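User: Please predict structures.

Assistant: First:
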Amino acid sequence: MTAPQSHFQVARPRHGAVAAGNPDGAAAGIAVLEAGGNAFDALVATAFAMGVVEPLDNGLGGGGFAVLHHAASGETHSLDFMSAAPLAAHYELYQMDAPDLGYRIMVRDRANELGHRAVAVPGAAAGLAEISARFGALPLGECLAPAITLAEDGFAMAKKPVLRLNRTLEVLSAFDGARQLFLLPDGGIPREGETRRNPDYAHTLRIIAREGADAVYRGEIASLIVAQMREHGGFLEADDLRSYRAVWRAPARGVFAGRQVRTMAPPSSGFLVLAGLDSLATAPGDSREEQRARAMLEMFRARAGGLGDPAFSRRARALMLTATESAETTSLSSMDTAGNAASLTYSLNTHSGVVVPGTGMLLNNQMLLFDPWPGGPNSVAGGKRPASSMMPTVVLAQDRAELALGASGSTRIPTALMQVMDRVFNEGADLHGAVTASRLHAEGHRLMADEDVQALATALAERLDLELALMPGRDPAMGSVQAVRRNGAHMEAVGDPRSGAVGRVC
């Protein structure tokens, strides 16, 4: 059975399923599954392809996290491939123009946001290659093949990337490499459906297919990155690339509705979704919406100690809100018929505007995720990884993967995931209904809500003494969830229509 809506599919699988933010990305994962790959190969192939078709949100220049359930061993693993601060980066080098303004400290010339000093050591190549090497059934080169074809032969611009170009046009226009790569010769923006290519990126991917991730950290690509940084006063040096490693961490664990929840540990804020799910069991309220809102408020109270890289801070257990974390990330999930399941979220944050000549790579601005004020668990320090709301998650029922899900949306990620899981496991909703339902987000003194639940949200905001912000339409800022579920003999794959995402079963 195939649902008529293109963003989701329910079917009895022959191979598995993929959910991703772009049709070409999902197709890459499906092609690898049909070629004999497993869920981990599909995850890697989809992630590489998303770096081609949504290049402002993710790609080789970024970093993130993955949670992977390996059916044969029954073990769930989590991989931290978040970008790391260059060793030369110190808070004193980001001179401040103003004291604390709300949640954000202004940095002179926006040096932690724009240009070469905003770039943290990218972790994507190391992370994706590590997943492939440890759990993949196919060679890394076969997983790269769909992305290489898209970059070389071209792909049709989807709606979301066009919107992203509009939102970041000023930054792209300010940097020669970005302007030449992403904009039209007259400085305009490509239209939806227009074919775009990135032959330099295809060349870079071919090098990785041949030499592995070492090419990015020690080889030809590394040399190009370092040359660009030195020419423009960036902090990132050859030693930063050579010393970078993706880190296997024990996943954060919780129990919800009789199931085992596995998500990311710090520097991810995965524990927040666990705290929210725990709070639901005891949250007061006359309606489930009120219980969820109260649980959300409680989960954000848990962040009081501040979140950071556990290698640098013993207090790295709670999330401090940053106004600088982009809602524009890439999340994708996969499963196969052997019982493997995986979810991955990665990002450039809002991107630095820096394209490395000859590589087609747009680099991250994940230095913006650090607190530029000294002394906190998320303050700038060389080698440190910044706090993040990204939290790919896998849910197990009787030690078997039932649900893999993740989201984009900054601090709306944990609340979106909480609502989806509550609807599926406590209310009996199908996955499509749970993902596409209206959402709330309660944090601090504010309640955000989809505008189609205005009456409910107005009453709830008054009851909880919160300021109400209604979000028009189904805004992806409320979280865009990509999820795959095993449901009996069928699999459900749902890409959130908020961002034009796609779910496919094969």
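Second:
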Amino acid sequence: MQTHTRPQQKGSEVMVRKRDKKANAPKQPAMRITRQRREMIGQLADALAVLAPATSRFKGFCVRNVAEEHGLKRCWKSGNNKRQMIARFLKEVFRQYPRKPKAVVMAIVQGGLDWRARKGESTTREELEAVAAPMQALGFNIRKDIKKIELPEPSRVCAPAQDKIALIERLELHEALTDDCLEMFRNGHFNEAVRKALERFEKCIQTAINDHNIIGKALMGKAFNRDNPLIAINDNRTGNDFSEQEGFMHLTMGAMSGLRNLYSHGDVDQMSVTDAIERLGFVSLLFKRIDLVLKNKDKP
């Protein structure tokens, strides 16, 4: 008895071809940028340009850094015009990423409010409405989110004189302090700059001893203990070596309890510009000494 192979159904072949064609087809844009939408994005860019800087020389807040934080670095194109850079970025976000525009815009708004407050500038509800209106026209309702935001009080601190800024820049602070810490100093936020610098030093030590559960004074005591140091700052052979190790331990413990903890509270009076320069220089000294120790440790 002959057996016959059942021919493959023609309909199945068509379905397979359609599925393969669909899989290989280029992804369609999330939003078609029409002339009207381009105008709305332009209005949105104008409103956000009032609230936020497009770029920053350091690692402080700006729209470019918001783009990177949201995985949208490829959408950012540098240029000379602030408003145009923001508009180009927003256009690509709306076009390619349908779920991200709201989160990105709200991050820019919130960061911009804080940034302006630190500069001593206030933000009005009208300025926030100028953001909400074009977002609504583009299909994103953020008015409820906007209403929940508490407008921060503008800072009353004054930026330091230019000669003081030039002085701290000539000190060649450790690279860990030359981004937002230095920017805070330039903007007159001395307590915050010193606190941030010490927190960064604390994290550096946690990483060096691979222990992120211990903090502050106890962390420094564990890391630089004279008799059994996890980070030996010298050969630990002579009396001078032991004294230096113990002294460094006390310096770092004092930095945590006497400086970092103190300036973590908002009710502490603002330190003077000279105090801020001296304290940042001190933290820089600690960083540089640890860099030297770790560098020598890695040598064969």
